[in-house]
Amino acid sequence: MRHRYLTLPIIALLAACQPGARDEPRPVDLTPRCGADRLRGLIGQDAATLREVDLPRVTRVVRPGMALTMDYRPDRLNISIDENGIIDRVWCT
Hints:
Strand content: 15-25%
Distance between the termini: 68 Å
Oligomer: single chain
Shape: rod-shaped
Largest sheet: 3 strands, mixed
Number of strands: 3
Number of helices: 1
Order of helices and strands: HEEE
């Protein structure tokens, strides 16, 4: 009878060591969601217009010759301004 109480914890420990189902990695959502679609109307306007626009928190204004990081952030809005100070591109990365 006493042996039965000793074997139960050992069986429980061995059962816990058995390989179980592994969690599958979740796919990363890379869908652009920076709001660029609603701001495409800025293209062709003077860069000063940006002071009057409610921009997302994560916004990067890109000027000619400016170095950019290559990391992808679907929530980051990018606004490109040309040499004449005109907005020429709006996109997410």
